[in-house]
Amino acid sequence: DLAAQETSIVNASLQFDTGAMRPTFRLLRDRPGRSYALEIARRLGLPEDILSMAQSRLTGGERRVEALLGELEERAAEVDRLAVEARLAAKRTSETEQVLDETAERLGRREKEIEKEARKKVEEYLLSARGAVEEEVERLRHTAASASADPSGAAALDTAVREARAAVEKSLREVRKPGDEQPAPAPPAPGLLVVGDRARSRSLAVEGEVLEIRGEEAVLEAGGLRFTLTVADLEPIGQASKIAMRQPAPPLPDIAPATEIDMRGLRVDEIEAVLSQGLDAAFVNDVPFLRIIHGKGTGALRQEVGRVLAGDTRVRAHRIGGFQEGGSGVTVAEFGNAGD
User: Fold this and answer.
1) What ranges in 186-267 are assigned the alpha helix state H?
2) Angle (nearest 5°) at CA 134 between 132 and 137
């Protein structure tokens, strides 16, 4: 009653374990206490008639309060029990989720391993097929040479060789994925690459036209730039014209140097070689700037471009492109010889 009348006073009681008939020494705030005298007396063996007489002396209000407090204790105990069970269930659920996550991760890794192993086996088969194609090419060339085959037969042989190699290389590209370790490219069969052919550089991943062949090296024109590469690095992708096949092409006049180079689609480890070639051509031709397109993406290509430019003493400055230049998908390199 006092706690109900005074705001500075609150109800509290000490919990009592009626089963063990001993206090738990747990303070229960905002919960009025009740008397356990009759329960303790019964447990101690006091005669039942005395207990009944004592019980009868309680007023109706006292008995109702005792019954209500007893019911509150039972409900509070049930709430505590349910809270403990809920915490245990939450812990078990968390542990189960962790096990499921670990299992899913393990299965995902295994799935990737199986896929990689399968692709490796297919790639080995295709590489073996490519080797067989090259051997057959050599055999047919020797046979044609010994039989003094006519030019039309040689042209047909070249066409068949190109188609066979293109089919194998296409299958290899479909099997491989970015990031896979690539085997060393096999050099093309001798005499297969001629001036005027369309060819692809395996190391730079660019396509262009073969302008010159100088022994073991060749000059490839791609995207307005000229690259000096080894013949073994070039893969024919288109048949040369008949004129180009019959006689060497005359020296080509210098073309206007490109002020833009597109790096999109390259891997990070391919950037330095391609960009260095572009910087060489632009600097030699006194181009004031070079616009390097790398795209936005994750920013990895942009960072690598910046690293290469920062280490090149010919580059006076480099910056991200303006709004009309392509924004963050473009880096503009300015050369120190501009305006000299």
Assistant:
1) 242-246
2) 110
Lookup: tokens for 3: 């706690």
Token pair recorded at residue 331:
């880096």
Among the listed residues 236, 304, 233, the one whose alpha carbon sits nearest the alpha carbon of residue 270: 304
Parallel, antiparallel or unpaired: strands 217-222 and 225-230 = antiparallel
In a domain, 35, yes or no: yes
Roughly how many angstroms between the first and final C-alpha of the chain, as a whole number?
100
Structure tokens at 38: 């009759």
Q: CA angle at residue 145 from 142 to 147, to 5 degrees?
A: 110
Nearest to 263 by CA among 278, 249, 250, 251: 278
pTM of the model: 0.29
- Interstrand relation of 234-238 and 198-201 (parallel, antiparallel or unpaired): antiparallel
Cα separation, 256 vs 286, in Å, equals: 11
Domain endpoint, select from 255, 272, 289: 255
* Pairing between β-strand 198-201 and β-strand 22-29 as defined by DSSP bridges: unpaired
* Most confident of the following: 187-196, 249-258, 305-314: 305-314
Statement to judge: residues 202 and 215 lie in one domain: yes
